[in-house]
Amino acid sequence: MLTVKGVSKIFDTPDNGTESVRALEDVSLDVKEGEFFSIIGPSGCGKSTLIRIIAGLIPSYDGEVRIGPERVNSPHPWVGMVFQEESTFPWRTTVGNVEFGLEMRDVPPAARRTKALEMLDLVGLGGFEHRYPSELSGGMKQRVAIARALVMEPKILLMDEPFGALDEQTRIILGEELLKIRDKLRQTIVFVTHNINESVQLSNRVMVMTARPGRVKAVFRIDLPHPRDSTIIASEKFGQLVGQVWGALRDESLKGFKQMEKTNQGGRP
Ligand SMILES: Nc1ncnc2c1ncn2[C@@H]1O[C@H](COP(=O)(O)OP(=O)(O)O)[C@@H](O)[C@H]1O
Ligand SMILES: [Mg+2]
User: Of 114, 159, 221, 261, which sits 20 to 30 A from 34 (CA to CA)?
Assistant: First the structure.
């Protein structure tokens, strides 16, 4: 479904200094249809760069990304994307936000309203359709962002730390709901996170990246049962898997911290 082969990326005009930045080096991965694939790595290691390349938002890179048979250089119609940062339009209501992409596709008004309302129900926002983003909590806004991506019926959903700004309980609950939605709609999901528990709770496989330049350090198969709800986090197996992922990540996190100190920008990668 999605193949990444030998992808490297150097930013010649970095946003954090004068030298060029080697963000990714020789990254390869293969995501199967219906799989929930997580990418975890230290801050600044190139996770967002990788998912943005997959999304077709960074057209120039070395190596190859393929979705189905096609090489990716621009946004692919099969792909939907959810970001960490607020990606709702503040001037549109909840339902207006979800309808946006359908408007762009010239879906007639009645049909797009029906679809948007269905999707809002699915993400647990039934009854909130006429609220504005400013009237919603952070978790609800992320539900809107998810509904907005899903209403376009993507085969592949790319998520870049979608729950990163949320408190832990909201994050666990939204994760559980995301799995339910996935079981119903059967998307393939590529999910970037810096949260180890979250990666294990949700995924079929977790890929650990090295500190910058981001390379593939290890890939773990998460053989926890499906369908899966959040009570899984209490199981012994869950704890073991979290330990394994952290085992691969620990050194890279330490390197990541050192890199941050060097750039001396108050914590910015
Ligand atoms: N558009 C850009 N131009 C220049 N440098 C960038 C750009 N985007 C990211 N970078 C740099 O690439 C590196 C990886 O960034 P990013 O992919 O955002 O990391 P992560 O998402 O893992 O925190 C960082 O050093 C960052 O400053
Ligand atoms: Mg990022």
Answer: 114
- List the chain domain ranges: 2-78+154-263
**Residue 18: per-residue pLDDT:** 63
| Ligand 1 atom closest to Cα of residue 209 | 22
pLDDT tens digit string along 185-230? 999 999 999 999 999 999 999 999 999 999 999 999 999 998 999 9
CA of 238 to the centre of ligand 2 (A): 25
Please give the pLDDT value at position 16.
59
Q: How does DSSP assign 167-190, residue by residue?
A: -HHHHHHHHHHHHHHHHHH--EEE
User: Which pair of structure tokens corresponds to residue 44?
Assistant: 């600044």
CATH number of 2-78+154-263: 3.40.50.300
Strand partners of residue 219: 207
Q: What distance in Å separates the CA atoms of residue 252 and residue 184, rounded to the nearest whole number?
A: 36
| 18 or 152: which leads in pLDDT | 152
**Separation of 152 CA from ligand 1 center, angstroms?**
28
Distance CA 243, CA 249 (A): 10
Ligand 1 neighbour 193 (Cβ under 6 A): no
Ligand 1: centre distance to CA 44 (Å): 6
Give nearest CA residue, ligand 1 atom 5: 14
- For the chain, how many helices (H) and strands (E)? 7, 10
Contact 15 CB / ligand 1 (< 6 Å)? yes
Q: Which ligand is nearest to the CA of 23?
A: 1
Tell me the three-class secondary structure of 149-168, residue by residue: HHCCCCCEEEEECCCCCCCH
| Confidence check: pLDDT of 126 > 90 | yes
